Amino acid sequence: MGKLVRDRIPEIIRRSGGDPAVTVLGETEYRAALRDKLFEEAGELAEATPEEVAGEIADVLEVLRALAAVHGHGWADIERVSLAKREERGGFTDRLYLR
Fold first, then answer.
1. Is residue 35 over pLDDT 80?
2. Do 62 and 37 meet the contact criterion of CB atoms below 8 Å apart?
3. Among residues 5, 29, 45, 49, which one has the fewest Cβ atoms lying within 10 Å of its Cβ?
4. Alpha carbon distance 28, 30 (integer Å)
């Protein structure tokens, strides 16, 4: 079973003497793989130590950027929508937990 990897991972494996089997995904498979990757990375973030958190957030962010792009959105679009939602509903800084 394979998984979506960053673009340079096959190159890194080859430099280490490996011979990775690589497939370029079609649009539908790519979108599904990105969703799976988001869950994978979110799980790694949930389990990260305090020292690992920044790196794991960076991995989640990279997947989110790719998801935005594959759906035709630039990152500036996402930032605008995020700001509008924050202005309307607030952020998460107050640590509110609704029961």
1. yes
2. no
3. 49
4. 5
